[in-house]
Specification:
Blueprint (H helix, E strand, L loop, with lengths): L11 H24 L6 H7 L4 H7 L3 H5 L3 H13 L7 H16 L2 H12 L2 H21 L8 H27 L6 H15 L11
Helix pairs in contact: 1-2, 5-6, 5-8, 6-10, 8-9, 9-10
Length: 210
């Protein structure tokens, strides 16, 4: 979009669709917290949102999709931060982007804690959560050089570092959620990344050729 141009206001139809989607998400969240994920049916969610089951499936293909309804927005947010970092591409840029993401992510702590409790109550959702996490790790790896056309050593190192970073992120989030999301996530993240930094002090130096 050209700079200075305002995004068109959503139409009445678009606003209605947004409200319906929000009502479905909220109805599902309340039921999942009360009855559990497995104990809640699509029909119950639709009734609680005052829509038909058919309408539910126009917005979400499965119950599981409602739980992870924010995933696409979150992963796109991270990718945007990775692309627009104020420092040159490399480990420092990725570190900055991750911490900026943490600050944004933590702003929704109440919603996130509910989501965490729902996910942890279901082995199916836990498995899906782990699967979706690979998208975050892949985005970090890509920013570090894991892209088509890059040298094999660069791609391998990018994937290894991304794995180390995301392992730290996951451990940090587990601690944050265990504490009821009351701690400062940005401080926890900075502490964890500092430990990683010590082992990656020379990461932005040229790679040795394979």
């Amino acid at each position: 979009m050209l700079r200075g141009m305002k995004k068109p206001a959503p139409s009445l139809r678009e606003r209605k669709k947004t409200r319906t989607r929000h009502h479905l998400i909220e109805a599902a969240r309340r039921l999942f917290l009360k009855k559990g994920f497995e104990g809640t049916t699509v029909d119950e969610i639709a009734q609680a949102a005052d829509v038909s089951q058919r309408t539910f499936f126009r917005y979400f293909p499965t119950k599981e999709a409602v739980v992870f309804s924010q995933h696409d927005d979150r992963i796109e947010r991270l990718r945007t931060l990775l692309r627009r970092s104020d420092v040159p591409v490399g480990y420092a840029a990725v570190r900055q982007a991750v911490l900026e993401f943490a600050a944004w992510y933590a702003a929704g702590r109440e919603e996130l804690l509910d989501e965490y409790r729902i996910v942890m109550s279901s082995p199916l959702l836990v498995a899906r959560d782990v699967e979706l996490d690979t998208e975050y790790e892949a985005a970090i790896a890509e920013a570090l050089g894991d892209a088509d056309g890059a040298e094999p050593v660069t791609r391998r190192r990018a994937r290894l570092v991304a794995g180390a970073l995301f392992g730290t992120i996951r451990a940090t989030l587990q601690e944050w959620f265990a504490g009821g999301c009351t701690d400062d996530l940005l401080s926890l993240g900075s502490e964890g990344l500092t430990l990683v930094d010590r082992g990656l002090a020379h990461l932005d130096e040229p790679s040795p050729r394979a």
